[in-house]
Amino acid sequence: MYKKMKVWGTLLLSTMIVLTGCSGNGGNENAGNGTNAPAATNSGQEAEGEPVTIKLHTFGNEANYNWTKTIAAFEEKNPDINVDVIVLSEKGDTQEAIQKLDLAASSNEQMDVLMFSDPASYAQRVGLGMVAKLDDFIAAEGYKVNEDYKVDTTLNGSVYALPGKFNPWYVLLNKTHLKEAGLEVPTDWTWDDFTTYAKKLTTGDGASKRYGTYFHGPQNGGWMEFLKLALANQAEESDFLKADGTSNLDNPLFRKTLELRLQMEKTDKSATPYTDMISQKLHYRNQFFNQAASMIMIGSWMNTELGGTDQFPLNFEVAVAPIPKNDAADEGGYTMVTTDYVAVAENSKNKEAAYKFVRWYTTEGQIAQAKNIPAWNGVEDSQMESIIDTILAGTKNPEKVDKASLLNVLSNAKSSKIIPPVTYQSEMYKVINEEYEKLIYEQQDIDQTIDSLQERVQQIIDANK
Question: Is residue 358 one of the residues assigned to a domain?
Fold first, then answer.
């Protein structure tokens, strides 16, 4: 209990400092969305026969989440439930939103449905007792989250949120380069295949050299996905820590990732040098759209840019491939995934109505919203294709995108089981990044790198017990 109160105190102090520092805007930043109104009185279930009003606190703004259309569709089907959307950041700033969410919770505002943008925010608020278990609702309905959805949101044996959108990572391909090299668009491949493709796609020398691939990380303790290459295609234990909080750095697949990065940069010379990425502050969009690299591994938030934009015109054909597997016999589709975690507030007096909205929003509601690929497995191929058509239609040259390859990857992608984030995650990432740099700068070999990592990460784990 003391630990939980201490964490809450820290969160609220940082929230008050940030919000005080932003007070110069006159408090009008979110005018009209309810965030500046006096705290609502949570009187619970309204009089029998009258609609229940539930409050949805979200980081998603109207432009990105189409709330007006989405809520209208829900209320038409559920006239006994009204949904009041509280947009916590009009700019869609997730950090601002989570700070305002914590402040609203400490002020005892009415909260019924909560949305989190990342597993760390989700897991931390679960740990603080802010989020209700959904296990009984799910059991009553008779489904399993890992069967109904592509993202398994289970934490410590229970489900506290259902996943909304589905943004798996994939490999973007310059299809024009593939044709020139006599290569097919992969639908099922391994990391060995990936390295072969990268070598065949690498051409030229010096400043005009075109690399087979570009890795946008790690850097400054971020973009750590690029040190999980061989770990990514696993149902479980796909992170640097195991579910029980112990180190996973002795996993052979972590070593394989390091070996892969060394081989492609130092031996094959088919990957953009790490030193260039850091010193020249390279970015994956420039590298891909300017055709400095033929393949990049990135998240499917890029769907809205695949056909080119004003800033990055598309002058070639684009295709999409799944994240490569380690062995041909492995089950495919597993990849890093970002999603929205949609939950019921523990203090809600309208939990049944709130859950009803959560379940609808993460299923049929994703179709009504028409903004993202849903994590729900109930989406039919025709519906998926329609969503993709809508997304690509917003780009400059959708006809240059191999839609069939995109549809294949998104339809078959699925996430690994969530590893509950830890409070010292950023400290651990920094250490892993530092030791990787010693490896790639040839200051130590792989054995020394893994030994040093295991020692340093274990020290961090022990210090936080």
Answer: yes
For 312-359, what is each residue's pLDDT tens digit?
Answer: 999 999 999 999 999 999 999 999 988 999 999 999 999 999 999 999
- CB atoms near residue 347 (< 10 Å): 17
CATH assignment of the domain containing 87: 3.40.190.10
Indicate if 97 and 57 belong to the same structural domain.
yes
CB neighbours (10 Å) of residue 302?
A: 18
Task: Please tell me whether residues 7 and 125 are part of one structural domain.
Answer: yes
Closest-CA residue to 149 (of 337, 377, 339): 377
At 406-458, the pLDDT tens digits run 999 998 998 888 787 787 888 999 999 999 999 999 999 999 999 999 999 99
Residue 364, domain member (yes or no): yes
The boundaries of the domain holding residue 82 are 2-166+339-379
Residues 6+ apart with CB under 8 A from 297: 169, 170, 171, 172, 213, 215, 225, 226, 229, 323
Contact 86, 33 (CB under 8 A): yes
Indicate the residue type of 234.
Answer: Q
91/96 Cα distance (integer angstroms): 9
Torsion of CA 147, 150, 155, 160, to 10 degrees: -80
3-state secondary structure of 140: helix
At 162, list the tokens. Answer: 């259902």
Residues with Cβ within 8 Å of residue 244, at least 6 apart in sequence:
none
| Cβ neighbour number for residue 198 with a 10 Å cutoff | 22
- Kindly report the pTM of this predicted structure: 0.78
Q: H or E stretch including 355?
A: helix 351-361
